Amino acid sequence: MIPVILSGGSGSRLWPLSRKQHPKPFLKLMGSHTLFQQTVMRLACDGMEAPVILCNQQHRFMIHEQLCAIDAGAQLLVLEPFARNTAPAVAMVALKLLAEGRDEILVVSPADHVIQNSTALRNTLELARPAAEAGELVLFGIPAEQAEPGFGYIRCRDEFLCNGMQRVEHFVEKPDMVTAQAFVDCGDYYWNSGIFMFRASRYLDELRVQSPAIHESCIRAFEGCSLSETTLRIAASTYSACPDRSIDHALMESTRSACLIPLDAGWSDAGSWSALWSEQDKDEHGNLLLGDVVVDDSRDCLVHASSKLVTLLGLEDLVVVETRDAVMIAHKDRLQDVRHLVNELDSEQRGEVETLPRVFRPWGSCDSLDRGERHQVKHLTLKPGASLSLQRHHHRAEHWIVVSGTAQVTCGETTFLLSENQSTYIPEAEVHCLSNPGKIPLELIEVQSGSYLGEDDVERLGDVPIAATDQATTPTTARIVAIK
């Protein structure tokens, strides 16, 4: 079986911690690993191959970093130029495998859910496998124990298959609270976990029947893909024609081959602050406190502090989430409406919807520390052997101060080394490059000053390989200031 891990979505209900460029799968919401890492680890077991990971092309650097952090790898990385939902995404994976003559069982799983009992999940996967091998389209249902209007619901027929599976009768997408409570009281409904199992060819055959437009557009998009050894890049020009539909809507709701197996493994979609509050241990006053938080005479609150001290006094039933660039305060009864707040911010083109202060790049990461009208301060981290492109800026100068590691700097015609507590100045419009020739990460502070500090003020002139240390001039021959 091949795990197909879908790492998409923006997790807008978890704003301000989750952003479009740093979405929910890459956050440490429960435990010491991110949700993406937890997904990879629980699907790394006997009978499973290395995963296929599907993500937005802008997230590939975070995927690489997080896989390396848990000493894991992927057999294939499928990069989408933009989201087209799960039905086209899984079709692209199936087409790639079949093109290699591999018609294997796919276990499709979101990368942003919590499953507390990995053993129970693996046992359920083994129970479902014979049905998938026989051509069934299997989905995993969570017994609906409480009314959740934000979930999808599934009802099964009194038609039993092997290993306790039932034929699916119908789907209901996100009912109102009254209807959701009626489903729970009935006892015949399951939550849709978003986890599926089927053979690659069987999925495509049924997709051709139930959603021919998706099937045809995905074939055209696959023909336009570019492929390296372990990466499949989907071209925007052809992928844009794919209808935006989920597996549920495109296939499962209409096929007669859908069957459900119950999954009792401590599942949560971790999709909102209310879900996180209900899943974790609280103090004696019902508070869930994460980070540097002090509360007094407050009850049933969730407080998440990322960068500074947060205090509460005399409050109840509130959620307070602090990041370096935003603070959200909401009543617990309104948490399903956080996405509406995010939509409003998005319509105003607020940058706080797109990115966190720290962003990842192929060479490392960049953390914004401070910004004014004519200055900006950043913390750069370059991986060993990494290098920024040869470039220049027409409206700003830069000061680089090495915090740790060794920097190789090209400034104009001169190349030199900087070590800890040394710095240099890059004049406006000067051609320059920064590299890390060492074996440990390079950390430095970059101070920008000028009339325009936008990210588009960069003229890239090419890549410069890291020179050998003995070829660089000594620090005393360059414009270097020791920082006392």
From TrEMBL:
A Pfam family recorded for this sequence: NTP_transferase
Residues annotated as signal peptide: none
Gene3D superfamilies: Jelly Rolls (2.60.120.10), Spore Coat Polysaccharide Biosynthesis Protein SpsA, Chain A (3.90.550.10)
Family annotation (InterPro entries): GMPP_N, Man1P_GuaTrfase/Man6P_Isoase, Man6P_isomerase-2_C, ManC/GMP-like_b-helix, Mannose-6P_isomerase_type2, NTP_transferase_dom, Nucleotide-diphossugar_trans, RmlC-like_jellyroll
Top-level lineage group: Bacteria
Sequence ranges assigned to domain MannoseP isomerase/GMP-like beta-helix in this UniProt record: 291-345
All residue ranges annotated as the Mannose-6-phosphate isomerase type II C-terminal domain in the record: 350-463
Functional pathway: Nucleotide-sugar biosynthesis; GDP-alpha-D-mannose biosynthesis; GDP-alpha-D-mannose from alpha-D-mannose 1-phosphate (GTP route): step 1/1
One function term, GO molecular function aspect: mannose-6-phosphate isomerase activity
Catalytic activity, EC: 2.7.7.13
Reaction(s) catalysed by this chain's protein: alpha-D-mannose 1-phosphate + GTP + H(+) = GDP-alpha-D-mannose + diphosphate
Nucleotidyl transferase domain: residues covered: 3-284
Keyword terms, alphabetized: GTP-binding, Isomerase, Nucleotide-binding, Nucleotidyltransferase, Transferase
Main enzyme class: transferase
Family, similarity comment: Belongs to the mannose-6-phosphate isomerase type 2 family.
NCBIfam families per the UniProt record, alphabetical: GMP_PMI
PANTHER family: MANNOSE-1-PHOSPHATE GUANYLYLTRANSFERASE (PTHR46390:SF1)
The protein's name: mannose-1-phosphate guanylyltransferase
Species for this entry: Stutzerimonas tarimensis
